[in-house]
């Protein structure tokens, strides 16, 4: 089922998400619906707060980027209760966008590599090290679980320059191809 994506200004995007356990009601269906919603919106990552549910759940599928980056094609992961363990000191700038902030892309500086622990959809624990684009997407989605958006990480001048666009999103004047709330 395709779910509406909550946009900038919705309070759920600023909440720190709560951990869940394997008894969370309807978890398998929720994960499937999140993947369906993400694919429909042409995204590569989605966190549960973006669909209005403040729990620690992320889905990522980088297959849409495979044509230009074959090494990303097999990166599909569900992360439950992720915890960022380490970040590299070296940071890299890259252009980011977000399904919750339609129509806005900005340069964001993030650690080049990370170490993260999480449970998969079967509640098997994983500890992984990611770098490059994989690390960036994981960090972006992880930020949603901490109540942060990529616009929090941009330079103050850039934030001031997009203030009008953000205000329009809050007022419901966002234009996108997917259902928003």
Description:
By secondary structure, the chain is α+β, with helices and mostly antiparallel strands. It has four helices and seven strands, in the order αβββββββααα. The strands form two sheets. A five-stranded antiparallel sheet has the order 1-2-3-6-7, with helices on both faces. The chain has a two-stranded antiparallel sheet with strand order 4-5.
Q: Tell me the total number of β-strands.
A: 7
Could you give a short account of the major beta sheet?
5 strands, antiparallel
What class, by secondary structure content? Answer: alpha+beta
Strand content: 25-35%
Global geometry: globular
Query: With helices defined by DSSP (H or I, 4 residues minimum), what is the helix count?
Result: 4
Low-confidence stretches: none
The span between the termini is 16 Å
The helix-strand sequence is HEEEEEEEHHH
Helix content: 10-25%
The pLDDT mean sits at: 96
Radius of gyration: 16 Å
Query: If strands are numbered along the chain, what order do they take across the biggest sheet?
Result: 1-2-3-6-7
Summarize this entry quickly:
The chain is of the alpha+beta class and 181 residues long. It is built from 4 helices and 7 strands, in the order H-E-E-E-E-E-E-E-H-H-H. A hairpin with a 5-residue loop joins strand 6 and strand 7.
